[in-house]
Amino acid sequence: MAVDAHAQSCGLLPGSTLADARARIPQLHALSNNPEAHAAYLKHLADLANAVTPSVALDAPDGLALDITGCAHLFAGEAGLAERLQKVLQAAGASCVRMAVAPTPDMARALARFARVSPYFVNDSALVRTLPIAALECASEDAVALKRAGLKTIADVANRPSVLFTARFTSAFTGKLARVLGEEDRRISPMKSVPLVRTEHRCAEPVISQDVIEAILTLLVAKAGDALHARGEGGRTFEALFLRSDGAVRRVCIETSLPTRDADVVMRLFHDRLNALVDPLDPGFGFDVIRLAVLCAERCIESQTTLDARAEQDDQTMQLIDRLSTVFGSENITRLRPGDTHIPERAQVIVPAMAGSLPQSRCKDWIASGSDSSRPILLYRQPHAIEVETDTKEEPVVLRWRRVAHRLGAINGPERIADEWWCTPSGYGTRDYFRVESENGQRFWIFRSDATAAVPSQRKWFLHGLFP
């Protein structure tokens, strides 16, 4: 499947059988092919390539495609960028690296895989015409047909009218030829979308001190805040990327419940997140690149400060939610949101507290409905089966719950709630709810279900909630 640089220098090539390879080199060390590990390693190399550009895509089966537009000047040109990237990949264990810089991804792929002149090539459009037909990566039968026609290089094909090849091999072949020659372009699809706002700091020497690292991150957060302010937006997701000099990559991501561009708030969350990491941020030999990206942003409208203390209290509550979610995980800090249903056990949905707040009008409606004394504060997730004695009017008189009999003194009901035909049935059918109070002052919310018995007199009763 693959050989390293030393095996290649000994004359071994991918595609040969293991028996033939061992016959030529008895001391050959062979490893079993592991596609999952190979894909994970290629993704790791893609993360390392972020040191030169944020736009990195996987080029199956064993390549990377980088869009370095606007990045070459940071490395004194395209050749310097290629040299830097090659050192990073070799430091990560990639013993055989070939790369090319070209106007289009297809031309760069063809040069890197089929040219055999130097470790890397920079904008050599003349060299691509000397590549073999295999650089077009067409079907095997098409390659055989081209060779039988005496066409051995890309130049032989390019010098002939394209209409001939379109009629014989369809337009996909001529389209591939145009992209390899740089006449047409095809943009890559990066593994991660390009962030809305990105700031970075390249250190003259690798930094190790935690104070210096936080000072650099504070500067980047302030710059990102200025960029967000110019856009009229606030960040919801911030990612800090730390690239170590030995090739290791560290990522720290925080989220906020409301859009913000306040540097103090963001840095407080980063500080809490760094302290809560199970695997500490180990600088090793030092970080030479620190980058901050705003992955998600929303419209942020500045409001005038009022004398209403509730607004300030709400902001402090949201900041507390952000800090707790950063330390303990957003999935562990939850809140209740109203569900669009009248079935009691479905009327509230548990969501992460950082999921955002409801519109003000809907919050008021929900709070008003929650203050209704006809609904209990404590509602059981699963209604408890109880035994009920009724009178001639089929109203409850005595209920037994948890082996304790409660004689009822006050009864209010029934309130009928039916299943929603457009949703999954609850299993209780139509319910008749009663608010009852025992002689010793305990208040219960019970209902009679018509889905548990065919005869009305044999309907089962359930206790669903308790009043304070």
From TrEMBL:
What is the protein name stated in its UniProt record? DNA polymerase-like protein
Would you say which domain of life the source belongs to? Bacteria
Q: What Pfam families does the annotation carry? A: IMS (PF00817)
| Span of domain UmuC | 4-111
Q: Which InterPro entries match?
A: DNA/RNA_pol_sf (IPR043502), SulA_CellDiv_inhibitor (IPR050356), UmuC (IPR001126)
**Which BP terms in the Gene Ontology apply to this protein?**
DNA repair
Classification via SUPFAM superfamilies: DNA/RNA polymerases
Q: Which organism is it from?
A: Hyphomicrobium sulfonivorans
Q: Which UniProt keywords apply?
A: DNA damage
